[in-house]
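Re-running the complex after MR caught last week's input typo. The corrected sequence lines follow. Everything else is unchanged.
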Amino acid sequence: MPQGMSRERIAGIVAVTIALLAVAAPLLAPPPDFGFLKKLGITGGREALPIDVGLGVPQVLSIPVTYNGSFSGPAALEIDAQSSIVLLQEGGREINVVVRGGHDYSVSESGGKIKVSASSVVVVVTAPRGSLDSVSLKLMSSLVNGSVSAPLQLRAVSTKFSITLIAGDGSSDLRLSSSAGTLVVVHEPGSGVKLSVSAARSVVVVEGEYSRQIVDGHAEIGEGPYTVSIDADNSYLAVRVTGR
Amino acid sequence: MMKTIDKIGGLLVKPDETVTALLHGAGNFAESVAIVLFFSTTLWVSIALHINRIASAALTIVPLEASILASRLATPAIIGGIVFIGLTHDLVNFLAGGVVVHFVASVLDGVGDMGQVIVLNGYTWVALVFLLAGSIAVAFSFIAGLLVLLALLPLTWIWHIYLLARGVSESHGITMGRAFIAAISWDLLKILVLAVLAKVV
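Corrected-run output:
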């Protein structure tokens, strides 16, 4: 205690300092950490998350939607990519977005709401070999029907279930157990190979710029190129490739 | 002669002696208003900055460019609005609270000067220092800080009521029990009014 300074004065100085610090603290402190929200299953991120995509290797990016609600108003996917990108929305309504060219591109849903009832949105990035160096995706949305806004965060999914089929390989079988993640089958264009897919649940087959769905069944698909994206909770899946 | 800084500190470390001193000439209305304005302004500015900061962080979860733009435009207005409303609320509390406490103390057989109660009521705003300390904690640890703030909230109120009751007891010559009733009367009245409004609405 400085000589001659009373307890009251010291307490007064401390009190005034605390009051001034209380004003300065919110300005000086780092942004609040909402990490606990992620633990509750609410993930987020407004910023575009750059995703490195290897040369010529198609990537599947899963966007977990941890909240069931409906989008309304501006719901847009901003994509800055150097090649085509296909956005699939699992369950409910499908959104297919194909973006070409290395420029910012924004797609907005108009004329109504986009219902989201699925557990995830799958973004399939397809690119000819060597043409895709990087891709940056930003999904912007706002959930209105709910007290919590559901943030969407891009997350790269393990590619360990991806198989690349090369012409002349003959046939190949693949069987996945449940919750195996998303499977991508990539087919070299013009190889004349046919792909046969059967699955316990719905399978979305993307061919070029359009998609079609095979539900609980078996389908033979013509020549590629195509990418197959399959629900993570398929209990059974077999992919057979026949051809030269 | 006691300086303002000594009175602020005294109300925290030597409350009884300081309240007595304030009632016997050490306190004045201008200083009382200044203390209310200082602690009230710092508290509400701090709260407004916290709200703004948390809202900014939350915008990373609600990813709308329009929201960000709106936030940027609205930030000064939001902060100013919160501070204005908070200051108005506190000034009404300061003046009307003093009047009501004096009135209730009179009903409870107290005899004293209303001005003294109003002046003393203003000095009790130093109790906000506990909330301000909690506000610092919130800045650096959101969840833990909120818990600290919640713990300090009753302490702030108790300290404010104690100082007021101590002063009313001395200035109006009533027991601490009666002075306590008088001191909490303003808060009880506010709760009652809010309850009635809630029922009507």
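None of the earlier attempt is carried over here. Chain A touches chain B through 42 residues (CB under 8 Å). The radius of gyration of chain A is 25 Å.
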